[in-house]
Amino acid sequence: MTVLVLDVDGVVVLGHPGGGRWDKDLFDDLQIAPERLQERFFRPHWRAIAEGEADMLHMLARVWPELDSPASPRALVDYWFANDSRLNDGLLDEVGAWRARGNRAFLGTVQEHHRARYLWSTLGLGGHFDGMLYSADLGAAKPKAAFFERAQARLPARTVGDVVFLDDSIRNVEAAAAFGWRAWHYAALDDLRAALSDAG
């Protein structure tokens, strides 16, 4: 059985509902400079959070005084999730047609636990895919080989060659190909169509 695995951000979810990055209006709305958020939160702490070693809300609360915002950590998280939620409807239609023919489709993504739940339940991706393989649950993030090894163990694929994978990151595509998955770089919907056509 050929199994489809798709990255989330940049493939299934395309950023701000109005276009662009989720944090493009962050300073105007919450008085947090995106560069400061990257410097104080994402760069030093994201790896541990994304691999399930630290809780995002706990870590964000620790660095919150450094961000000088009148909002709260929970308000920032809610803002982030809501503004990083534009679904790639054309892609979801293709995935739906693939699944309607009796095939399976999964998400393979770098996410922490809170956003993974949001994507699956609140945003509704659970209605479009058979499962989500995400870094905080697997204990490893792309492009580490451990991510692909642990994801493979949870897929209904007999061999690594039975997995078709698409990601917008060249590094992740190269790592997946080195592991043995049939990996494609995703830049536009035609890339998914080509991959599914090749898969048969």
Task: Provide a concise account of the structure shown.
The protein has helices spanning 26-30, 34-50, 56-63, 73-83, 89-100, 113-122, 135-138, 145-154, 170-179, 189-199, and strands at 3-6, 104-109, 131-134, 163-167, 182-185. With 200 residues, it is α/β, with parallel strands linked by helices.
Structural summary, described in words:
The chain is of the alpha/beta class and 200 residues long. The model has no long low-confidence stretch (mean pLDDT 97). The protein folds into 2 domains: 3-15 and 86-199, Rossmann fold (3-Layer(aba) Sandwich), CATH 3.40.50; 26-83, no CATH class. α9 (170-179) links the parallel β4 (163-167) and β5 (182-185). It starts with a strand and ends with a helix. α5 packs parallel to α10 (189-199). The chain has 10 helices and 5 strands. Strands 3-2-1-4-5 form a 5-stranded parallel β-sheet, sandwiched between helices. The chain is globular, with a radius of gyration of 17 Å. The protein has helices spanning 26-30, 34-50, 56-63, 73-83, 89-100, 113-122, 135-138, 145-154, 170-179, 189-199; strands at 3-6, 104-109, 131-134, 163-167, 182-185. The longest helix is centred in the first third of the chain and has 17 residues, at 34-50.
